[in-house]
Design brief:
309 residues; transmembrane; cell membrane; transport
């Protein structure tokens, strides 16, 4: 390049060299990672997201405000005003009436076991359907999906009769077994689609190295799909925690009831006032909110894991 410049006359050197620098600077400025301007569509999406967030937050805020409001204050000012003074009798009354620690443990016990069992069964089923390629896998997946779409009202009487015969009625294990099957149906459908796109080269390499099917599952498939499994654990726990109809039907004794069932049964039995009802809803909501906040990063990583190769 220097030899070429020496061969040019002085006029050409003075013209050509400065002409390159501005163009290069313009390209550098154009390719820089500077702030981008938001378009009208971006602002519309942002406004819609804010409005939806407000609608989602309003019920929780109403529950929070009315939980610390006395019945007299509620009757005077209504549900939309802040309490004039903090009132804790509603929370204490609900805590003592239902034995809230016992109901909290029942919900954690049932939801935790369902989440773990359902994810394990889903992983085994999906490994057989998505990677094992059993015969008729498409019809099996469709059948599982259809079974998962059945409303719970249709299942109540057959399940009631079956668990009554085996002696598991009014037992927490009846609810655990039912929801493990229901949740694993969805998990099998989801994981079978994920495992169906698993890299065959990786599985063949593990097989050539002498790995058995069990070793391939736990040393190859499980570590790669762990983010997805973590998301399923979180969803299964929250979904089972919020279930009401089946626990209400199968958990008759007061000592076996979950938090949602205890709230509803107490409302119908003792006719609680609005502030105590709000306090009960707040106490029932806090555990799932804490669980979600603890595993928020795990949920985010699991959801976004499939977007990055």
């Amino acid at each position: 390049m220097s030899a070429l410049i020496e061969e040019l006359d002085p006029d050409q050197r003075t013209v050509s060299v400065p002409a390159v620098a501005p163009a290069r600077r313009r390209r550098q400025r154009g390719s820089g990672a500077g702030p981008t301007r938001r378009t009208a569509g971006d602002w519309v999406v942002l406004v819609v997201a804010i409005v939806l967030g407000v609608f989602i937050a309003v019920p929780f805020l109403l529950i929070l405000v009315n939980s610390f409001k006395s019945p007299a204050d509620y009757n005077t000012s209504g549900p939309l005003t802040l309490p004039t003074e903090l009132y804790f009798d509603g929370i204490v009354a609900f805590w003592e009436r239902v034995d809230f620690p016992e109901k909290l443990w029942n919900s954690v016990f049932i939801s935790g076991l369902v989440a773990v069992f359902a994810v394990l069964i889903s992983m085994f089923n999906a490994f057989a359907l998505g990677i094992g390629r059993v015969k008729g896998r498409l019809w099996i997946v469709v059948l599982i999906l259809l079974a998962n779409m059945l409303p719970q009202e249709v299942l109540l009487y057959p399940l009631y009769f079956m668990f009554k015969q085996v002696g598991l009625y009014d037992s927490q294990w009846a609810v655990i077994i039912i929801f493990t099957v229901i949740q694993s149906a969805f998990g099998t459908y989801l994981l079978a689609s994920v495992y169906g796109t698993f890299p065959k080269e990786l599985l063949e390499a593990a097989s050539l190295d002498g790995a058995s099917r069990w070793q391939i599952l736990w040393r190859v498939v499980y570590p790669i799909s762990r983010p997805t499994l973590s998301v399923l654990v979180i969803f299964f726990f929250i979904w089972t925690w919020n279930e009401f109809l089946i626990p209400l039907t199968f958990l008759v004794s007061n000592s076996t009831q979950t938090v949602p069932v205890a709230i509803t049964v107490l409302q119908g039995d003792r006719l609680m006032d609005v502030t105590t009802t709000s306090a009960s809803a707040l106490l029932g909501l806090i555990p799932t909110l804490v669980f979600f906040l603890i595993f928020q990063r795990t949920l985010t990583r699991g959801i976004t894991a499939g977007a990055v190769k």
